[in-house]
Amino acid sequence: MLKTVEIYTDGACSGNPGKGGWCAILLYGGKEKILAGGEQETTNNRMEVYAAIAGLSALKERCAVKLYSDSAYLVNAIEQHWLNNWQRNFWRTADNKPVKNQDLWQELSSLMLAHNVTFIKVKGHADNEYNNRCDKAARAEIAKL
Q1: Phi-psi region of 41 (alpha: psi -120 to 50; beta: other; left: phi over 0)
Q2: Residue 54 to residues 23, 36, 127, Cα–Cα distance (Å)
Q3: Which residues are catalytic?
Q4: Cα(89)–Cα(114) distance, integer angstroms
Q5: Contact assessment for residue 60 and residue 52, using Cβ atoms and an 8 Å cutoff
Q6: Is 11 exposed, middle or buried (0-12, 13-18, 19+ CB in 10 A)?
Q7: Do the strands 116-121 and 18-28 form a parallel or antiparallel pair, or are they unpaired?
């Protein structure tokens, strides 16, 4: 039986593109681990996807993961099968344009194969404690740059 881990993620950007930050909070067995970082020149979408990558990369064994995000870009790409379609179409969108952030999507796709991941959309800047903490941490990373 797989361990069930919850991961809350968020990304933020000051300017888009501009300085960006990300955060992932991992919850398991009553413990939490906070991961955060930033980049000088990035976009909000890149930070959202990178937060998910960072969270999944921190897992040391195959897990059942509930990954919570306020990013429609991230959650819809998985839940509405955009990622599968992009891969099938050789990294082209439905209107035949190159997929943005292909490098991150490829890394995320690879990490998802190692785990049983369910993506769950949460409302941003609302009453979700962990989403709010992720947002605060991601913004703090921007301030460090």
Answers
A1: beta
A2: 8, 8, 24
A3: 10-11, 48, 70, 125, 135
A4: 23
A5: no
A6: buried
A7: unpaired
Q: Tokens 């190159």 belong to which residue? A: 98
Query: Got the DSSP string for 100-135?
Result: TTHHHHHHHHHHHHTSEEEEEE--TTSS-HHHHHHH
Q: Confirm if 7 and 24 have CB atoms less than 8 A apart.
A: yes
Token pair of 45 as six digits: 């979408």
Helix (H) / strand (E) containing 24: strand 18-28
3-state secondary structure of 65: strand
User: pTM for the full model?
Assistant: 0.97
Torsion of CA 130, 136, 139, 141, to 10 degrees: -80
| pLDDT tens digits along 75-131 | 999 999 999 999 999 999 999 999 999 999 999 999 999 999 999 999 988 889 999
Write the single-letter amino acid at 90.
F
Q: Tell me the one-letter amino acid at 35.
A: L
